[in-house]
Design brief:
The protein is mainly alpha-helical and 129 residues long. It has helices at 2-10, 29-39, 56-61, 77-80, 95-121; strands spanning 19-25, 44-50. The chain is built from five helices and two strands, in the order αβαβααα. The longest helix is centred in the last third of the chain and has 27 residues, at 95-121.
Length: 129
């Protein structure tokens, strides 16, 4: 996460000054805030929202998705090896693992598109933030 933040803030692929970045994941708030603080971000507004990106309701209750112009879906080690146990073979990336990761990322993209469509129609949204 820190390498990504540094790149987005001041790297060769940096975002425009004052861009907003939202991390939506199930990581503890304190851990993410510590990682963000260590990066000393100067050009970005960074937020963290603790939620499950695989749950469609997350996009209706925790995030006003219409505030963003683009979305980037990335997976971390928890998605590759959900139980964080390197001895059980789950972390070996074989075709089945890659298909599982693909389906998870596609599900997140579907939730984002559906939330945007509902927002555009003004249907059943209850945004908190």
């Amino acid at each position: 996460m820190q390498a990504l933040l540094r790149e987005l803030d001041s790297g060769d692929s940096s975002l425009p000054v004052s861009s907003s970045v939202l991390f939506l994941n199930s990581q503890p708030f304190v851990a993410v805030q510590a990682a963000i603080s260590e990066c000393a971000v100067t050009c970005l507004h960074v937020r963290h929202c603790q939620g499950n990106p695989l749950d469609a309701e997350t996009y209706d209750t925790l995030v006003d998705i219409s505030d963003y112009n683009c979305a980037m879906c990335l997976c971390d080690a928890k998605w590759i090896d959900p139980d964080s146990d390197s001895t059980n073979g789950v972390d070996f990336l074989e075709q089945g693992d890659m298909l599982r990761l693909d389906s998870m990322l596609l599900l997140v993209q579907l939730h984002i598109r559906t939330a945007l469509a509902r927002k555009a129609r003004g249907v059943g949204t209850a945004f908190v933030c």
